[in-house]
Amino acid sequence: MHNPTSLADPIQPLTEREFSNISRLAYEKFGLQLKPEKYELVTARLGKKVRAAGCRSFQEYYQRVVDDRTGEALIELIDALATNFTNFLREPAHFDFLLKEVLPSCSRSDRLSIWSAACSTGEEPYTIALSVLDALGGTGSPQLRILATDISSKALAEARRAVYPAAKVESLSSGWLRTYFLRGEGRWKGYYRV
After folding, report:
1. CATH number of the domain at 92-193, please?
2. The CATH number of domain 16-81, selected from 3.60.10.10, 1.10.155.10, 3.30.1300.10, 1.10.10.60
3. Residue 3 region, left (φ>0) first, then alpha (ψ -120 to 50), else beta?
4. What is the dihedral of CA 102, 105, 194, 123, to 10 degrees?
């Protein structure tokens, strides 16, 4: 019978070969490029996964991910390695471009479709939506459709929830907060929902 490794048990250090295998898998399966300077990041983020899986080495963990036919282990690997950094109005120049260059050129269209790739936890696509709705004055023309994608299922779940701590929305105008957000009460005090 297999005795899982406890969280206190040491695991073997990540070798160059193991790092190379994990890097190649991350690139081939989801396009994440892990350069050598990410060695410590991979060690820290995957070390917990290695222990939780009851493995004694990164190679053993890697093999479990590769052998897992359900794909669940690969999803956990993706969620562990993906860096989800974003916030509302993160790149103001991009939103200026959207409103001054893109939106006017779409004025004769009845539809506007935007793809927010690598949307992380959703702040970018929500900022796009609020910016466009604000610019259109709530007319709804053109019809707006935003496709928001990310490799991290964990980040996408947060984006779908659309609930953010007050610190995340403090840079937004009070008009946007009143019009497009619900302020949490009770156990949700200190949070806002789009």
Report:
1. 3.40.50.150
2. 1.10.155.10
3. beta
4. -10
C-alpha–C-alpha distance, residues 133 and 172, integer Å:
15
| Tally of CB atoms within 10 A around 118 | 14
pTM of the full structure:
0.71
Would residue 187 show up in a list of annotated catalytic residues for this protein?
Answer: no
Question: Of residues 64, 90, 150, 193, which has the active-site annotation?
Answer: 150
Under 8 Å between Cβ of 54 and 5: yes
Q: Which of 9, 24, 45, 183 is catalytic?
A: 45
List, for residues 37-94, the tens digit of each pLDDT value: 999 989 998 998 999 889 999 999 999 999 999 988 998 898 888 877 788 888 888 8
Query: Among this protein's residues, is 67 annotated catalytic?
Result: no
